[in-house]
Structure prediction request, 82 residues.
Amino acid sequence: MPRDGAIVLGDLIGKLRILRLDCPKCGHWGQYLVDRLVTQYGPDTKLLEWMESLLANCPRMQSQNPDDPCEALFPDLSKIIL
Prediction:
């Protein structure tokens, strides 16, 4: 799978043990073990594609309304150098 400059799960190995996801608008949050994600989805899985599939039921993701977008993010990504 081409990376196209995207962050993939394999990039997180050795840098994060737990990947946190948080959406302040809808209240969706979760903590995921990086090793388990890599085993389950593969090291080449793009982080944003994985997040989109995880949040497929989010009303804001489904509507894609530019006035009320989903604000899900990975708060710990800014703390590591990729």
Summary: The radius of gyration is 13 Å. The chain has one domain: 9-62+69-77.
